[in-house]
Amino acid sequence: MAKNVKRSWAEPYKMKMVELLKMTNRPQRLKAIKEAGYNTFLLRSEDVYIDLLTDSGTSAMSDRQWAGMMMGDEAYAGSRNFYHLEKVIQNSYGYKYVIPTHQGRGAENILSKAIIKNGDIVPGNMYFTTTRLHQELAGAKFVDVIIDEAHDPTNEHPFKGNVDLGKLDQVVKQYGAKRIPYVCIATSVNMAGGQPISMQNLKEVRAYTAKRGIRIIHDMTRVAENAFFIQQREKEFNKKSVREIVKEICSYTDGATMSAKKDALVNIGGFMATNEWSVFEEARNLVVIYEGLHTYGGLAGRDMEAMAIGIEESLSDDHISARIGQVEYLGHKMMDFGIPIVRPIGGHGIFVDAKAFLPHLKQDQFPAQTLAAEVYLDSGVRTMERGVVSAGRKSDGKNYYPKLELVRFTIPRRVYTQAHMDVIAESIYSVYLKRNKIKGLKMVYEPKYLRFFQARFEQLK
Q1: For 63-314, CATH number?
Q2: Rounded to an integer, what distance in angstroms lies between the CA atom of residue 58 and that of residue 406?
Q3: Is 452 a catalytic residue?
Q4: Pairing of strands 349-353, 215-219
Q5: Where in the chain are the domains?
Q6: Of the residues 31, 76, 87, 362, which is catalytic?
Q7: Annotation marks residue 445 as catalytic
Q8: What predicted TM-score, i.e. pTM, was given to this entire model?
Q9: Which of 262, 284, 333, 408 is flagged as catalytic?
Q10: Phi and psi dihedrals of 458, rounded to 5?
Q11: Cα–Cα distance between 228 and 245 in angstroms, integer?
Q12: Residue 248 · residue 213 · CB < 8 Å
């Protein structure tokens, strides 16, 4: 082999079982997307060929996880699987107190009710849909303090999840530290395209908040992916393992929420963690109301066991390298076809810039929603919108108009092959070739909350 030739990545696992998929033709897909109101969330999964709607709960569990499922202790109180999970979280992430929840938004709800007061301000490195809604329902206002580069899909900044310390300082000076229950730090930032925060920036945020008595709450749903980028892009961490980097990230925060359906490789589950006894005590009381007893939090014992094992597997350098490698493979294939995507390539999927893809459509014509429907029509590949529909409405009823209008091609972990990635790239290119003929959508049904899940659309004439 010639010197300096980059070696191909490969999956650090082999397949023992396959799931057969239903193949459809364009007339069948047209009927399905019309019945779904041009909302990919409302499609039936049996009508989908390659499902890139989300990486949440869609990963393939390992043989060890499935074996663990058979070891479920389904006692109502004090399940041994909870204590195993608690120990793994404490050892892997370093947080003292753990409360399991049915998924990440359950943890967000408990946390918000436990520490937010009416009139509070929550700064963060870009909003996430369910996180912001729980903050608002608890009486707070979210303020975006992410760096400006995060809102530019073409900017190549290696850490677009970083906090702008100047913006954060302005918020603190305007509202006062006492009105800020915590700064919300996501690793990685989903709505920015799976972009990471650097360890250096996190240390700076920690130093700033520590002086002012402000907590940092860690949205750690994709923390292992963020750690991989730190390992690759910050020189002082090149020789550290992902496990070590994850532990250090967590050490600069006071608590966390996690949807274990992403990094931790399970189909259901999440948790809230904290280092503060008073916060834990309040959350432990609340979880009994909204989720279940504090030693199961809405989960079966088998789910907690699978989560504990999945956390351990998620911190393997071999696993995370292959996981990110597959995402990068798809991203480079799209760029070779001239598809405008968020750069640099993020951790959990490829985000296509719908504004650049469909420049003739105004944001009120929902270009990202339109493009997601067109990709499904072309190939049966299901993606999702991350733009004006996901952003929702302000308290005054007006739409948020985010600078980023994206279609997310989210890759489940350990599920699809490299050949699937080729099919996906060829599909988006096929749509790209006829992009000038694509018409937008109008919204004909809008639910009160999180409209992107259930809204319905019709094609513009």
Answers
A1: 3.40.640.10
A2: 21
A3: yes
A4: unpaired
A5: 26-55+317-459, 63-314
A6: 76
A7: no
A8: 0.94
A9: 262
A10: -130, 150
A11: 8
A12: no
Q: Which of 55, 219, 254, 353 is catalytic?
A: 219
From 40, 58, 101, 129, active-site residue:
129
Residue 350 tokens read as 């490829």
Which is catalytic among the residues 128, 159, 296, 457?
Answer: 128
Distance between CA atoms of residues 263 and 423, nearest Å: 25
Please report, in tens digits, the pLDDT of each residue of the chain (461 residues total): 556 676 777 889 999 999 999 999 999 999 999 999 999 999 999 999 999 999 999 999 999 999 999 999 999 999 999 999 999 999 999 999 999 999 999 999 999 999 999 999 999 999 898 999 999 999 999 999 999 999 999 999 999 999 999 999 999 999 999 999 999 999 999 999 999 999 999 999 999 999 999 999 999 999 999 999 999 999 999 999 999 999 999 999 999 999 999 999 999 999 999 999 999 999 999 999 999 999 999 999 999 999 999 999 999 999 999 999 999 999 999 999 999 999 999 999 999 999 999 999 999 999 999 999 999 999 999 999 999 999 999 888 899 999 999 999 999 999 999 999 999 999 999 999 999 999 999 999 999 999 999 999 999 98
The CATH code of the domain at 26-55+317-459 is: 3.90.1150.10
- 128 included as an active-site residue: yes
Pairing of strands 121-124, 456-459: unpaired
- Can you read off the two tokens belonging to residue 90? 């404490």
76 is catalytic: yes
Tokens (6 digits) for 16: 């023992």
| Active-site entry in 386, 408, 413, 451 | 386
